[in-house]
Design a protein that fits this description.
single chain; about 80 residues; alpha+beta; 1 helix; globular
Length: about 80
């Protein structure tokens, strides 16, 4: 996938900021924001996989279906 460098930077920065926000109320365990990246491993996976994981409270089950819906207020 070809993409604009500035837009990719904005996406990654937003993931960082969302992870930090998600951990704001966490007090009973360490707050960790784990970022990793790796190259694709096969012929068809010639790109890069970037993963951002936080130790926040997560998303309620009923909201999972709306997670990537741009018309939803949670998106």
């Amino acid at each position: 996938m070809l993409a604009d460098r500035i837009q990719l930077q904005q996406v990654v920065l937003n993931l960082f900021m969302n992870g930090i926000d998600a951990m704001a109320e966490v007090t009973e365990r360490p707050r960790r924001l784990v970022v990793s990246c790796e190259r694709g491993r096969g012929e068809m996976d010639a790109g890069i996989l970037v993963s951002v994981r936080d130790a926040g409270i997560g998303t309620a089950a009923p909201d999972l279906e709306k997670l990537f819906d741009p018309s939803s207020p949670q998106a």
